[in-house]
Amino acid sequence: MPDPDTRAYSPGLEGVVAGETELSLVDGEQGRLLYRGYPIGQLVERGTFAQVAELLWSGEWPTQAHLPAGPLPEEVIALLRGLPAETVPMDALRSAVSLWGALTRPQWPPTAEQARALTAFSPSALAAFARLRGGQEPIEPDESLDLAAGFLYQLTGERPDPAAARALDAYFVVGAEHGFNASTFTARVIISTRSDLASAVAGAIGALKGPIHGGAPTEVVNQLHEMGSADQAERWIREAVGRGERIMGFGHRVYRAYDPRAVALRSVAERLTGVADWLAMAVQVEDIALRVLAELKPHRVIKTNVEYYAAAVLQGVGLPPDLFPATFALARHAGWTANCLEQAAANRLIRPAVRYVGPAERSLPA
Ligand code: COA
């Protein structure tokens, strides 16, 4: 080790290029998000999550793709049945993925087939947990439905409204992949040790569980609930900003332009307006919030971020807010597993250096 250690160090690895990827480009300056070159807006408008997942796994845009939810082994149902009703849904999902790994023993290197099977398994597991905690029995997957529609079906037992299914599918497209975020990096570190895909995804779920990574949409819902109605929004926002608080769903560290995911989800949410009054209020409150924030923070461009319309869509399709983070995890399975395939294809164990700042060498007390 050099003495003193003068090697470059960036807390949080901020600005450090820690890999190469063909999967997504996150362009904060221009407000662009591309999956393998395709803009997120086009993917939402003209594609489905099944197509996007295949694109991420294989590199090719399939003209058609079908990805139904997978079957649940008895052992997984028994595990979920044994969890207390107050279990955090992310904990239930992480445990189910871990058991899936123990039962199916996916081998290194990870394959697209494993990625498909795990991405299809998790919605069934989360839906089963959501029903079991409410005293209802799990519902078998419907092979004819794609993942988002199938998840809604397995939650409620009813065939979902096509507009709701389409909206959740669009949310899954938007949530599928986003560069070297913390959970994706976690998955890549784990797979780089030649560990298995289930371990990588279980670890990624653990990283996503942290509130500063995956928790904001739930807060957006609480905020609108506190406002009560759009009439109260202006007063509520002025008072909150006056107390030095942040308005959830606005502002972004990376995106200087309008978050392209928010643009895509806004048009999805607007089409859902007939489904829930809540969405109409969310759209009204956005306009008020943008106007008031521009007035109160003239030195800072504050635009709507993805979480605002993620909350609108998830609420609009009828999901309970405490399922939002785990539902995000279902979408991100595509990106996590695609990153694992990419990492394994040109693997180098991820093992960075650390600067030692402890005591110099010394002897134990006599
Ligand atoms: N509501 C009110 N004011 C906000 C704001 C928001 N959502 N976002 C930024 N600001 C203000 C800050 O108060 C600060 O004002 P000041 O200069 O008068 O003190 C100014 O804008 C700059 O804030 P800063 O923290 O430097 O901005 P940032 O770009 O680093 O922050 C976020 C990015 C996401 C952390 C921030 O916008 C935020 O907390 N948003 C709300 C939480 C949220 O929606 N998170 C999900 C992100 S996808």
Brief overview:
This protein has two domains: 68-211 and 324-345, Citrate Synthase, domain 1 (Orthogonal Bundle); 216-316, Orthogonal Bundle (Cytochrome p450-Terp, domain 2). It has 366 residues and is mainly α. It has helices spanning 40-46, 49-58, 74-81, 89-104, 112-133, 147-156, 162-175, 182-192, 197-208, 211-214, 216-227, 230-242, 260-271, 277-296, 306-316, 324-345; strands at 24-27, 32-35, 38-39.
Could you name the key traits of this structure?
Cytochrome p450-Terp, domain 2; mainly alpha; 2 domains; Citrate Synthase, domain 1; binds coenzyme A; 3-stranded antiparallel beta sheet
Would you kindly provide a written description of the structure presented here, covering whatever features stand out?
There is one protein chain. The chain has 366 residues and is mainly alpha-helical. The protein has 2 domains: 68-211 and 324-345, Citrate Synthase, domain 1, CATH 1.10.580; 216-316, Cytochrome P450-Terp, domain 2 (Cytochrome p450-Terp, domain 2). 56% of the residues lie in helices and 3% in strands. The protein is built from 16 helices and 3 strands. The longest helix has 22 residues, at 112-133. Bound molecules: coenzyme A (COA). Coenzyme A binds at residues 216, 241, 246-253, 293, 297, 300, 302, 305-307.
